[in-house]
Structure formats: structure tokens, C-alpha cells
Amino acid sequence: MLRSLRRFRRRARKYFSVAGAAELSRRYFVMNSFDGALAILGVVMGAYITGRADAHLIINSGIGLALATGISGFVGAFLSEKAERSRKIKEIEESIMMEIKDSIIYRASKFVTLVLAVVDGISPALTIFLTLTPFMVHEISPSALSLQYAIIASIAINLSMLALLGVYLGKIASANRLKYSMLTVAMGLAIVLILFLSGAGV
Fold this sequence. Notes:
The chain is mainly α. The chain is built from six helices and no strands.
């Protein structure tokens, strides 16, 4: 099992290197995680501000949001990557006047297309699911976690994920990670403030 995982990891690194997709995968992950985190934060805050905070409703809305963003991300990334990489393969074949379907370039292109689509689909769904976790705990055991504390915990988890995304961005940029972290958290707090001021609902 471990040997198979190591082989897969080596092959993935090789294919990503050949296809030049490492930077793109990082970009997809951060961008879509950020979108998912802010979207579910809007759902939670909207429900709270309008006085319609109901754990069951928030969970169902969040699952619907996760499915929609996940499927949309997967399909959109798969189709766009497939189109772009197919065009590049054709350009290479035309330049050397022969097919390269048995080459590592072709296999790498197919591999990273699928992996990038999965990254694009899973990243927003993951941040949404984690933000919903306190509401799931409340649904299972209301006495263990009240709705009020579930809302606070949900927002805290959401802002923590935004902070971690900022740290990751700072690492990628080889820059001040705290500065990036504060910036991503500020974006989340700005969403909270805007919703409070506008009284927006779900």
C-alpha cells in the first residue's frame, strides 16, 4: 500500500513537472478554497443576521453550495484544461509532424487535467464542509453545543482557514506570512461587516 502510494507520488511529481502544472494547482487550490470559505461565511452570517439561524437549514444550504461549487469547479477546470492542453499537444505534433500519444508529454497532460479538475472541485467543498462542522455537532447533540456557540465556532473555523490560506500564500511568495494571513482574515471580516451593515439575508 505504502509502496503504491510512493510510486503514485513519484509519478505525479514527474507528470506535474513535465506539464508545468505545479503553480497552476496551487493557484486553483488557494483561489477556490478562498471562494468557498467566503461563500459559506456569507450563508452563516446571513442566517444569523436575519434571525433565521437554523442549523438544519444552514447545513442543507451549505451542502447545496458545496455540491454546486464542487461540480462547477470540477467540470469547468476539466473542460478548460482539456481544451488548452489538447491545443498544446496539437501544436507540438504539428511542429514535429508526428503523433505523440505514446509520449510522457501526452500522459502527463491527461494526468494533470484530471488532477487539476479534482483540486478545483474539492477545495471549495472542503472549506464549506469544515465551516459546517459545528452545526453538524449541534444537530447530533444540541446539549453539547448550542446553536449560538455553533455559529461562533463556525465563524472562528472559517477565519482560521482564511488565516492558513494567507500563511500558505506568504510561503509561496516567500514573503511575510503574517501579513498575508492578516490580509485574508481582513477579507473575511470585511464580508461580516458588509453583511451586518446591509442586513443581508440568505
